[in-house]
Amino acid sequence: MSKEKSKKPKKETPKPKIGEVDKRQIKLLKSVIEDLINKQSVEIIDLLAGKKNVNEFAIAEKLKLTINQTRNILYKLSDFGLVSFIRKKDKRKGWYIYFWTLDIFQSLSLLEEKLKNKLKVLETQSHNRTQGRHYLCTTCSIEVNEETALLNDFICPECEEVYELSDDSEVIEHIGKNIDKLKREIILVSEERIKQEEKIGKEKQRKINRAEKEKQLKR
User: Fold this and answer.
1) How far apart are CA 215 and CA 64, in angstroms?
2) What H or E segment, with its residue span, contains residue 83?
3) Which of 18, 77, 178, 202 could form a disulfide with 82 if both were Cys (CB 3.0 to 4.6 A apart)?
4) CB 80 within 8 A of CB 30
5) Residue pair 100/48 in contact by the 8 Å Cβ criterion
């Protein structure tokens, strides 16, 4: 008799705890920061994601920046609604210390909006390429649309060489690939935004339930 192979139990994927952010969201959030500020500031996501009320001096120390440089980054993010803060007065020194929290939902919403705007630009470019002809001056490496070529009698005003009809097939194909890529990215970001929205909704419902129970206990 042939021995049956014992099936190994499937490992269950651990569910993220409340407040945790998965790697896919981290990557998306970093792309927002890089686009808004610079590549050197993306590390701030690792310090804020999944945490609440992070001390700005701790952030500055981890980023190896001065407190003013750190605040400038955080204020820029705050202008877009991507972070919120509370402040507490240091009783000994007398000044205020800010504690920062990342708004994941708002960050993903902004990223989704930016990607959709890029998609519109590419779709416009694709439409213009497929619906009209373009001409090239091979001497000056300047491309113009058909209307401009007509106005110049199909002669380059810079070098007086005759324009040549451009082959738009490669350009259209390249734009098409970028459009497909952007659409996939938008779907991904949208899914993560919806997940975050649902998480916020559940947390709100838990707070409402707790408040109702406290009311009932007081009666």
Assistant:
1) 48
2) strand 83-89
3) 77
4) no
5) yes
